[in-house]
Write a structure and sequence with these properties.
This protein has a domain of about 40 residues. The chain is flat and about 65 Å long. It is mainly alpha-helical and about 60 residues long.
Length: about 60
């Protein structure tokens, strides 16, 4: 293979430390908080979709 740049050991260590830090923060979030955010997003999408479907669209007539 041609010369490919390799990550230094420090870079890999920094990446894994960043990942571990992120995962620890993620695991600390309560399930109920995540569930509430998902339900709010579903409701928002549902109302946005409903409001779009209420708008009447005039369809162009076909020329025969």
């Amino acid at each position: 293979m041609p010369n490919q740049p390799r990550q230094s050991a420090e870079s890999v260590k920094g990446d894994s430390a960043t990942f571990i830090k992120f995962m620890r923060k993620l695991v600390q979030v309560p399930h109920s908080e995540i569930k509430a955010a998902l339900e709010a997003e579903k409701e928002f999408k549902r109302t946005a979709k409903a409001s779009v479907s209420r708008v009447s669209v005039a369809r162009p007539k076909r020329a025969n």
